[in-house]
Amino acid sequence: MGERARQALPSVLSVLLALAVCWLAIALTRDADTATRAYLQMLWGGVGNWPAFLDGGSANTVLRPLGEAAMKAALLTLTGLSVAVAFKVGLFNIGAQGQMIWGALAAALVGAHVSLPAVLHVPLALLAAAAAGAVWSSIAGVLKLKRGVHEVISTIMLNWVAVSLVDNWLVIGPLRAVAEGASSITGTAEILPTAQLPRLLGDGSRLNLGFPLALAAALGVWVWLARTRSGYETRAVGLTPEAARAAGIPTLWRAGGAMALAGAMAGLAGAVLVLGTEGRYPGSLGAPYGFDGIAIALIGNSHPLGTALAAAFFGILRAGGTRMQLLGVHKSFPELIQGFALLFVAGRMVWLALLERRQKRALAQARPQVEVPRA
Amino acid sequence: MLEVLHSLLFSTLDAAPALVFAALGAMLSERAGVVSVGVEGMMRTGAFCAAVAALAMPTPLAVLVGMAAGAAIAAVHGFLSIRWRSDQVVSSMALNLVAMAGGTFLLESLFGPNGTPAITQLSRWNVPGLSHVPLLGALSGHAAPTYLALTLPFLFHLLLSRTPLGLRLRAVGDKPHAVATLGLSVAALRWGAVLGGGLMAGLGGAVLSTAVLDRFEQHTPAGLGFMALAAMVFGRWTPLGAFAAALFFAFGNALRIGLASSAPWLLDLVPQGFLLALPYLLTLLVLALQGQRGHAPAALGTPYEQESR
User: Fold this and answer.
1) Which residue in A75, A115, A80, A4 sits closest to A300, CA to CA?
2) Which of A100, A281, A327, B71 is deepest in the core (most CB within 10 A)?
3) Residue in B closest to A168 by C-alpha
4) What dihedral do alpha carbons A50, A52, A58, A60 form, nearest 10°?
């Protein structure tokens, strides 16, 4: 087995085991048949109902679920990358949520109040979101590097500040959309059509440019970390700061850069949410994508591509999870699966020990005569 | 003015215990070298189990059940991080997720989405003679956890700084190899700290559902666990520091709610979002001014291995 496969194996096994445990949980509370059908529903809801489609169903039976899954996967990939990049330099970014909030707000403002052709409008909105996220995470970065403030506490505080200022003031106050007609709108003004991320599969599916964008981001981060000098130095700082400093690597710059990049990724997640699906900064972001990013990054072993894979998988589960409700199975099962998967990732030492024990036993059985009694 | 101050103090003392207990629990675990990002999950479990137990038994007993539940979750963390030397951040975060999703699932399948039925709250105590003294009167009329929260930090301080056990606990978080050299068990000490931390976090959660509210709700504890973590770091991993920080956060919260209800004119001048953000901004400012280098236990987050020297 290659070294890479060995690295990824615990995560894959953990996810499978989590699936099994949750299947068992449904089977015990309901019955085995319901559990299996719920999982099938989840699968159809995540990757498309192919049997129905091949049976002559409309293309939407496939495109719609795929679009939902890809949309969720894009957000999880970007917030996962945010956490993963910070991990690479040894920082624990709990603040992806707050960075995402500012990114979403920046994208909503540029999207609604700047008029440009789409070719320029979309990139500008994305750039603004990335910059907003980066600025917000850099506060924590600077506090850590200049004043030694623990990033866990500063990012938690910055999350609360972001929620307070944006959700409880700006969005319901000065930036609130002017109500058109009788309908009362929560959130900021609607973005202009030129700022919308183009839909990739037509109007039947919400899949938009955000998904390839997230994949490109993952690929970009991976190339940067694995193939460039500054990426290599960043990883070195994360592994052993003292050695990195002794080797002449500008540790402060690398750590600060990684933290800013982490914020930019989370900011992009906010932009994808606003420009891709919401069309405006909604009253609040809805789901705690930033916190989910922590789990996604950890299951993905903080590897950019692993993170994207984990995000894709859980995007499918999340999108399909809503379908389970049709069978009366609770909607929080996808999250429960995510939690258990992470728990089993944490238990990877247990796996390894069990594997080792089995290997030893197999070895002992294979050649018992080799053992020489010691004097 | 005096009345406003009085009600601010009163609601601070009502809200603080959950934070104080959870912060003390996190501190206990981290001083022994085991990361405690999982307090949120332990609080949630404690809050849920206490509320459910209170449906069947007297509320004070139910609080004990909540504590035990917190310790049970902590035991999983201990098993993974002490016995199997897992990544402590991963296992903590996993427990948070499981507690979050599992709590929602259990709540809705047992009671429905609106929370558990109402339970009997912990009874409030009136301190004789204090009720009518200005300001100090705010000390009267709280449930037992408040008074416990006002004393426990000092006991923890004495335990950590004045007893051999406290010395060993601190040492096991800073230099576990030295502790092992003395013939003491690193694992046993860490287990004790993690389980004790779980008891405290469970208590913090139980306080939420039995004293602050009268039920367990979907969003309990709504990030308070992370606030407790922040309080612990803010308090530089010391019992009294964590205590002061927890009181400060609780006061900030009371200030926000209190000002909104007692001085609505203020909201015309200052947007409520600013008031909400104020405690957190102040925390950041204080931290930025004082700096915070080198207060975390030296061996925090590193699994102990006998051979690793």
Assistant:
1) A80
2) A100
3) B273
4) -50
SS3 per-residue string spanning chain B = CHHHHHHHHHHHHHHHHHHHHHHHHHHHHHHCCCCCCCHHHHHHHHHHHHHHHHCCCCHHHHHHHHHHHHHHHHHHHHHHHHHCCCCHHHHHHHHHHHHHHHHHHHHHHHCCCCCCCCCCCCCEECCCCCCCCCCHHHHCCEEHHHHHHHHHHHHHHHHHHHCHHHHHHHHHHHCHHHHHHCCCCHHHHHHHHHHHHHHHHHHHHHHHHHHHCCCCCCCCCCCHHHHHHHHHHHCCCCHHHHHHHHHHHHHHHHHHHHHHHHCHHHHHHCCHHHHHHHHHHHHHHHHHHHCCCCCCCCCCCCCCCCCCC
Residues with Cβ within 8 Å of residue A165, at least 6 apart in sequence: B273, B274, B277
CB B40 within 8 A of CB B225: yes
ipTM of the assembly?
0.86
pTM score of the predicted model: 0.86
Band of residue A84 on the pLDDT scale cut at 50, 70, 90 = very high
pLDDT tens per residue across span A134-169: 999 999 999 998 888 888 888 988 998 999 899 888
Residue of A nearest to B90 (CA): A346
Residues of B in contact with A346 (CB under 8 A): 80-81, 86-87, 90-91, 94
Query: Of A150, A342, A353, which is closest to B90 when you measure between CB atoms?
Result: A342
Amino acid A375: pLDDT: 46
Chain B residue nearest residue A154, CA to CA = B284
Token pair for B87:
């990544």
pLDDT at site B113: 81
Categorize the per-residue pLDDT at B304 as very low, low, confident or very high, splitting at 50, 70 and 90.
confident
Q: Helices marked H in A171-303 — which ranges? A: 210-227, 229-239, 241-246, 251-271, 289-299
Contacting residues for B11 by C-beta, under 8 A, at least 6 apart: B254, B257, B258
Write the pLDDT tens digit of every residue in A158-200: 998 999 899 888 888 788 877 665 456 678 888 889 989 988 8
Quick: pLDDT tens for A48-75: 888 888 888 788 888 888 888 999 999 9
CB contact set of B82 (below 8 Å; sequence gap of 6+):
B34, B187, B190, B191, B194, B303, B304
- pLDDT grade for A202, boundaries at 50, 70 and 90: confident
Counting one residue from chain A and one from chain B, the pairs whose CB atoms sit within 8 A come to 149
Check if the beta carbon of residue B60 is closer than 8 Å to that of residue B280: no
Residue with tokens 């996604």: A296
Instruction: Quote the CA–CA distance of B295 and B298 in Å, as a whole number.
Output: 8
User: Is A287 at the interface with chain B, CB within 8 A?
Assistant: no
Rounded Cα gap, residues A269 and B241, in angstroms: 37
Q: What is the arithmetic mean of pLDDT over A313-317? A: 91
Contacts of B37 in chain A (CB under 8 A): 152
Q: pLDDT band for B294, please (50, 70, 90 cuts).
A: low
CB proximity list for B265: less than 8 A, separation 6 or greater: none
Greatest Cα pair distance, chain A, in angstroms, is: 95
